[in-house]
Amino acid sequence: MKCTYACGTADHLLARRQFLGSVAAGLSAGGLAAAGLGTFVRPAIAEQIAKAHKRVLVIWLSGGVSQLETWDPKPGTDTGGPTRAISTSVPGVQIADLLPHTAQQMHRLLLIRGVNTAEDDHGKGYQIMHTGRRPEPSIEYPHFGSLAARLLEPADASLPGYIHITPGGGGGLAASEAAYLGPRFGSVTLGNGAPPQNTVLPQAITETADAARNSFRGQVNDHFSRRRRTAETEAYSATYDQAAALMRKRELFDVTKEPAADQERYGNHDLGRHCLLARRLLENGVTFVKVSHSNYDTHNENFNFHIEQLGEFDRTFATLIDDLAQRGMLDSTLVVVKSEFGRTPNINHLFGRDHWSKAWSVALAGCGLHSGGVYGATNDRGTEVVDGQVNGGHLFHTYFRALGLDSRESFTINGRPLPIADPSAHAIEEVLA
Amino acid sequence: MQAPATDPTQTHVLRELKHGSPLLACRFDPAGQFLFAAAQDNTLRRFRLDGDEHIALAGHQSWPLALAIDPSGKTLVSGGCDGRLLWWPADAPAPQPSRALDAHAGWIRAVAVSPDGQLVASAGNDLVVRLWSLGEGTLVRELPGHESHVYSLLFDSDGKSLLSGDLKGVVRQWDVAAGSETRKLDAAVLWKYDEGFRADIGGVRGMALRADRALLACAGITNVTNAFAGLGQPIAATFDFAAGQQKVVHRIKEAINDVLWNVAYHPDGYLIGALGGSAGGFLAFWRPEEEFEFHRLKLAASARDLALHPAGLLVATAEHDGVARIYELRKAPA
Predict the structure, then answer these.
(1) Any chain B CB within 8 A of the CB of A347?
(2) Which of A137, A184, B132, B330 is 20 to 30 Å apart from A349, CA to CA?
(3) How many Cβ atoms are within 10 Å of A213's Cβ, its own excluded?
(4) What is the Cα–Cα distance from B320 to B71, expressed in whole angstroms?
(5) Average pLDDT of B138-145?
(6) Smallest CA–CA separation between A77 and chain B, in Å?
């Protein structure tokens, strides 16, 4: 489906106006950071950035993290396994003992324990948790990151609106994630946390020559667009401009520019480096950052693997949440920790847990959500939701509302209204401020 | 003790001791009267072999993974995922913990009692091997050095040294009296960092030292091709114990996907292994110089541990279906 222009909703226009009012502060901060001053985020500047626009951080625990080893432990039952429950910074709320550092940040988190997405397939679960809808054969819906970039990104953003940091190699533009929003809102993938590919000027081309050819390209584009202006030509031109800006700000992607103490606090492993990079990108105005951590698909040795994986996640995530709060960014940054589904209460003969979408958990933080709370509940053995059942649609409505957007609005694509969130679902009002 | 003649090829189930919750570990007492088993319902079970007595020992707040009994048979020590060591009067009518220690941060995966009954060794996820006085429960010594989770412990039969094996296949030998590391054995064949999974898999799941101290066997999994599904082959890496050099690597003739959870050297010289995993449970038997097993017996369920009866005629397994099975290592009476 072809891309189209701005949806024209009042929320969208308002967000852009709000941003334009404080864009100078944001650019100033970005310029300092680009010069390699990793400590540029002083409280006053952080406050200005916070007012500029809402941002999103998604921690994607790939493969399906176990809710029983994280947010909803069931110790002492036949389904609970060896995992125990520990107290948190919120009296009465307990989480798994594999998350001792995260437990101390519980007052900043919100647990949704009644998730039932009714889909145990990896691919379909991924779609549900990235689009807020069950897959439909007739249409592809944009991913959360693309929607956020489209709806929240400042008008003259010089960095990609949707960045995905993965532990694996590769990288590039995942244009298909934007669906009908158009490739401009696809994710830019940073494989192994490396800077975007092809953002270094080839040695054979001098900066002078590069400037000259860009000037010529601009003249030709302008001449062409005066007669045949379309969404595609605008996107084409904007992509060049954004690429040039990206090349100028390449240092933003260099996490080694952050203070050594911060690198130590986040951990000497991929997730630590990637979460610190996420903080750096969010500080510098990127609208949506997704950090993937792999792999939680533990049909075998569920407990040993969760100890290892969550050992990385726990301290890093707690450090990141604390940093966002200390820098005044949590008020304007929605944090979502999720997977394609949870894992079975039943423990198989391989000490593993299998796919389980019927009763699992998602953790949220920021953007005024009721922190320190728990919404929904599963039964004593964790086999069913007994209170506050929600699906992917409810979660998406809640995300958008937390971000200050009317989740009932629609895009109009080729004359067809396409609601930004599943109209059969609604926001979880109880968790919204 | 002179072991009666055995014929492993005639191994058969002698008795089923049913509990119901999947079992994790098992040990006989030195007199061979009881079998102790650990279960996923956080309890230990005591089965009397010459009767139907079946008693629950409750005290752990998580899975008890490790069991050891002192040479007198009076004290059972268990270690759990709650990080606690519990002392039990093994032959009491209704055993209650006589001592509880918060011994480790995180899981305790292995315990062992010294041959003279003076020391208990414990280890697990906090990477530190600790030695305790069995009588007083006091901390005698800490042995730090492991860089990954410690999975197994074994006192040398002379009591002077202790072996500890970890997730990455490092076996450290410690001088018990001096508290120092004397050497390392490389059993890395039992470990893999899975690039696809981005996690470690494997480990020295169990160890056995032959009575003549000539051979050390380390049990686990190798050739892992899919950590998600547990696809890899059971293996026992044996070492010339004096030289510290790897010798024969025992495997299974078919490439079955299982873990070798524990091993024991029979007094007759052969090695017995308990297997469990995707391919189901097996008992396997290897001669010391041969790569492949000379006999393998299919079990009703995946085995997670084994124990050799002190008289040498029986072997017990802790199995996933909640049953501890006693196997006789010779032909069943007609």
Answers:
(1) yes
(2) B330
(3) 11
(4) 28
(5) 98
(6) 7
